[in-house]
Amino acid sequence: MASRLEIKPLDATFGAVVTGIKLAEIDEPTWRELYATWLKYALLVFPGQYLKRDQQIAFAKRFGPLEFEMAAISNVKSDGTLRVEKDNDDVMKILKGNMGWHADSTYMPVQAKGAVFSAEEVPTVGGQTGWADMRAAYDALDEAQKARVDALQAYHSLHYSQSQLGHQTRKSDGEYSGYGLHDGPVPLRPLVKTHPETGRKSLLIGRHAHNIPGVDREEARQFLEGLVDFACRNPRIYHHNWAAGDAVVWDNRCLLHQATPWDMTQRRIMWHSRIAGDPASESAVAA
Length: 287
Fold this sequence. Notes:
Layout: E1 6-9, E2 16-19, H1 28-41, E3 43-46, H2 53-61, E4 66-74, H3 90-97, E5 114-121, E6 129-133, H4 134-140, H5 143-150, E7 153-156, H6 158-163, E8 188-190, E9 192-194, E10 201-203, E11 209-210, H7 217-231, E12 237-240, E13 247-251, E14 255-259, E15 269-275, H8 279-282
């Protein structure tokens, strides 16, 4: 059967908009082509899918086992009322924290493989999601910079990243599930990651990364922030203007992502399904 995939690359070093298919109905040959396309572009955008929750979970599971099936990323409470921004509850603090560039679950023992994300309700202004290509960022380093980052590692912690926003993560108001705020070992990860399927090198940095062994803490902070600033700029970034019904899937092994601000008096309901990483390639290194 001839492929129905219509692939339009984004105006960036990565990413593509895919049309001509319904994700809830793809057959095996189309799936194999889609997966290969995902490995190439790292971010695929699917307009107008309007996935039901069970359909999104089923699609995400085609990429592998899930770290968790579905979570709402939203300023709307389960009872339908809006969170008040000035109340700054724990969920609001996590929403604000997500506006920093990061990769998912680097603070867990096994980093996530990727995620499927979809939009149910979107605000009229703002609320984009941005992604940044860490493959192209690594490629853009000069040889001396590559040699330096190749030799370094950093710890990753959600406690650390939230603390930078003044979030006292050891005290819970019960609003946030606490996911990622564990008291286990703090994962140590190389600053350069080799993709287990494509073999391409990429930077593994972002807001959760801190404390490089063998480097002064303040020097490490400045170095890591400088890497993020260098990496997350055109043409290595893309920010998606959401419409209700849009779905995306991204490769968490080579992209960073971020939320962006919106008018919190407007509802924003997004659904996140996280694809579990393979322990063989996504586990933290032995500290």
